[in-house]
Amino acid sequence: MNIQTVKFKDISFINVGKPADLEIKYLKSNFGFNPLHIDDYIHKTQVPKVEIDKNYNLIVLDFPYFNLNGANNPMKVPDKNGKNYLGSILTIPETLSSAALSQLIPPEEKKQRLLSSQVDFFIGKDYLVVLHDGSFSSIDIIFSLCQKTLHNREEFLGKGPVFLAYRIIDALVDSCFPIINGVMATIDKIDKELEHTTTPDTIEDISVTRRNIVVFHTMIKPIIPLFKQIEEGKYQDLNGTMQPFWGNVLDHLHKIWNRLEDAKELIEGISDSNESLLSYRNNEIVKFLTVITSIAFPFVIVNNLYSMNVVGLPYATDKNIVFILFSIIFASGIVILAYFRYRKWI
């Protein structure tokens, strides 16, 4: 049965990754969870929300991830020293260097689509049950830290299940920063590529990036008012001494939202510029073809007339006259070209 448990004093941390029928039956029989809450998780029909039950509080959240190299969470990507980039799950930086970003999201993976996964937190008086599909290493790392040492168990579980839920949520929210950094790095890469030329890969990058930003928006947008309500004390069991901590999560969400807005404006501006550039290049090609056609048109007419061997065409047998005629046609082409240049059409 895929249910991991770690305890500190009277507090239990139950980590349930990829729950199947056996795990669901265990949760229903041992914790008395509302069957509708469990069924909603199974069928993924819930939206981010907080629900209060007489025996527990339920927090439902959605978080983004990239499916890179077989690892669902980009934080699993190792750094150049072979260590996990996550390092300390509690100290994820909000900004990364270009080198770190290239390690985080390799160039060949930058067209990956952003996906979302749901995490359910069942917060009881003496337990925290976390249901997830294994997409986020943050949860497993925190659970592993609690297993290793008594000090870690005291740090995470010592202040109760609500504080433990906060630490996990805070880590999940902070794991969004490397994702938005990766999106910004891709936008910078697209911008530099457009300085030289537009390729099908660049157009695909623009399309996927715009889609990822929209998906990211849809995940973050409903979470912000949710944590604003928690911070303002709407849910008594989740507040008290925890109120400033939820404010910290809300502050991070606002930072992510602001950066998403910046990314959206950048990619839309780049997309519009690229479309204008493509339109300009297409117009240049059309103008060039028009010039060639206009210059060649007199030659085509005369060539067609004199190549049909029609008896009676004037000067058809006089080579000098034919040469003069073609010279006049050539000069006409030069005049047409000069006129195009005068009108600044080419």
Question: What is the structure about, briefly put?
Answer:
With 346 residues, this protein is α+β, with helices and mostly antiparallel strands.
Structure description:
Helix content is 57%, strand content 12%. The chain has helices spanning 21-31, 35-43, 98-104, 137-148, 150-157, 161-174, 176-194, 200-220, 223-231, 243-306, 319-342; strands spanning 4-8, 11-17, 49-52, 57-66, 114-123, 127-132. Strands 1-2-6-5-4-3 form a 6-stranded mixed sheet. It has 2 domains: 4-274, 2-Layer Sandwich (Beta Polymerase, domain 2), CATH 3.30.460; 279-342, no CATH class. It is an alpha+beta fold and 346 residues long. The longest helix has 64 residues, at 243-306.
Write the layout of secondary structure elements.
Layout: E1 4-8, E2 11-17, H1 21-31, H2 35-43, E3 49-52, E4 57-66, H3 98-104, E5 114-123, E6 127-132, H4 137-148, H5 150-157, H6 161-174, H7 176-194, H8 200-220, H9 223-231, H10 243-306, H11 319-342
Parallel strand pairs: 2-6
Antiparallel strand pairs: 1-2, 3-4, 4-5, 5-6
Helix pairs in contact: 3-7, 4-5, 6-10, 7-8, 7-10, 8-10, 9-10, 10-11
User: Would you tell me which CATH topology of the largest domain applies?
Assistant: Beta Polymerase, domain 2
The profile of the biggest β sheet is:
6 strands, mixed
Instruction: Report the top-level CATH class of the largest domain.
Output: Alpha Beta
SS content category:
alpha+beta
